Amino acid sequence: MPFFLRWLMSLLVISGSATAQIYADFQTTAGHFTCELSHQETPRTVANFISLAEGTRRWVDERNGLLSSASTRQPFYNGMAIHRVVNAEGFQLMQAGSKRGDGTDGPGYELPDEMNAKVPATYRFDQAYRIAMANAGPNTNGSQFFITGTAMNGLEGKHTVFGKVVSGQSVIDAILETQVDAQEKPIAPIVIEKVTIRRVGKAAMKFQVPAMKLPTLSEPSFERTVAPAPENTDRFVFSQGQRSELLVYASIDPAREIWQKLESRWHAPSPINARFYDVTHPEGFPVTGFRPVLARYHSDAITPMDLKGWTLSLENAEGVYLFSFPHMGDMGYMFTPAGSKVSQTGTIRSASLMYQAAPHHAVAEFELDQRKIIHLHLGFDKKIKNNLHGRCVTRVKHFVVTNPETHTGFYPGESTEPGGDRGFSMVPIH
Fold this sequence. Notes:
Strand order of the largest sheet: 5-11-1-2-10-8-9-7-6
Distance between the termini: 70 Å
Number of helices: 4
CATH architecture of the largest domain: Beta Barrel
Strand content: 35-45%
Mean pLDDT: 93
Helix content: under 10%
CATH superfamily of the largest domain: Cyclophilin-like
Shape: globular
């Protein structure tokens, strides 16, 4: 083959590879725009978005606990309103992905973050028109996303960027100009009518969503009995396996039109399975509807079911903390203030310990004897041998002494974030 033809063929191959891409075409009541999805840089996040947009995976409507069909496609985003618009100087975004329309729900499962400092496209907000995952803290991604209208560098390291707007930027600008109420919700609804996924090029066509280890949802069958205690309590018997999260929706409405989401239950790897779920109802108002949904996860879901049996160490702008939560005996801590070599020690009030676990994150709160409340949002990123590591958001309430003689006072209503969190480690107590 002549050199010119070989050069032309290689150029075509390179060009074809470079243009291999996945696009999301948004048809909204405000106009059309297209996002290019970073399927190579953030494959799991993109796979989640694609499968929700195309309806190829099951999701739960958290307004009533109804699970989408597994046999017929039910696209998640079609007909959904853009529920939040912010147009402030240096902070502009539009947000969607909430069936309730208030940003308090998702698809019934969560995904870890996919930010990588070595891959700037996954975390930088140094340019406008980026599409990124909205979340409630580390590793709490689901279905909600936002699109920026300006550079917002303060979001770096907090949200996974999984694409950019490549056409229709004027539509984004127009949406950002819409009038909103006190909750930042558009007064005149703006609806996503349809999201269409387009694959261009062989590499994009070969992108396999099922290979990305996304969680799966199912409806377990159950039997209903009366719990031995307390009164007015029904017991729903079924099996919840390991590495699964149970979502529960119940109704006491005779017409079963009003549903309430009850407390979820994460079942970490353990030698036993959970066998039932108790629901206590008001006297005279029996449970008329019960809908359990099981979200099953893969081996990267490593959140322990309890803090008991672990030591937890972290560092923030206040200093270095070491907390100990033994199964038996007092819980204690050691704190070394920033810039000091002198450590403080004390106890943790056992009655104050609260812990809520989910597959990829946990929220913990407890009170120190020095009149300080620690609130932690832990995002579990990796397990090395038996030790757990991840990122942490710390909030603190310092007791305000109003009478130095009696040491009486109060906790402020709002927590403060010390800033400078440098991650955490958890080590089993032997």
